[in-house]
Amino acid sequence: VCRDLLAPGGVVLAAGLGPSDDHEVLDRLLSWPTVRRTCDAMRVLFQAAGLKASCLDDLPAPAQVVAGTPTAKETAGRAPARPVAIRERLE
């Protein structure tokens, strides 16, 4: 969905948490289980969605941010998408 909503030249940013030693404590303390992925695992998800992905490396662990842009194959022959709010798309 994110790829389809991108304006020409747009970038998808995804933030998450990577593996860390404190994940079990936080999951139990906050009663908020988290799905933690390494940068490489997030990159694989982006690639499966037709996005070229790169990890932003200047964040302190366990923070993870991945930037993705559509691959040439995904944008070939496709008309630019009309800008639309995510909420409108989901309704």
How would you describe this structure to a colleague?
The two termini are 13 Å apart. The chain contains five helices and three strands; from the N terminus they run H-E-H-H-E-E-H-H. The protein has helices at residues 2-5, 23-30, 39-48, 72-75, 86-90; strands at residues 12-17, 51-55, 63-70. With 91 residues, it is of the alpha+beta class. A hairpin with a 7-residue loop joins strand 2 (51-55) and strand 3 (63-70). A three-stranded antiparallel beta sheet has the order 1-3-2. The longest helix has 10 residues, at 39-48. 34% of the residues lie in helices and 21% in strands.
- Count the DSSP helices: 5
Average pLDDT, all residues? 78
What is the rounded distance between the termini? Answer: 13 Å
Which residues form runs of ≥5 with pLDDT under 50? none
Level of helix content? 25-40%
Strand order of the largest sheet: 1-3-2
N to C succession of SSEs: HEHHEEHH
Overall 3D shape: elongated
Radius of gyration: 16 Å
How much strand content do the residues show?
Answer: 15-25%
Oligomerization category of the chains in this entry: single chain
Characterize the largest beta sheet: strand count, sense, and whether it forms a barrel. 3 strands, antiparallel
Number of DSSP E strands: 3
Q: Helix/strand-derived class?
A: alpha+beta
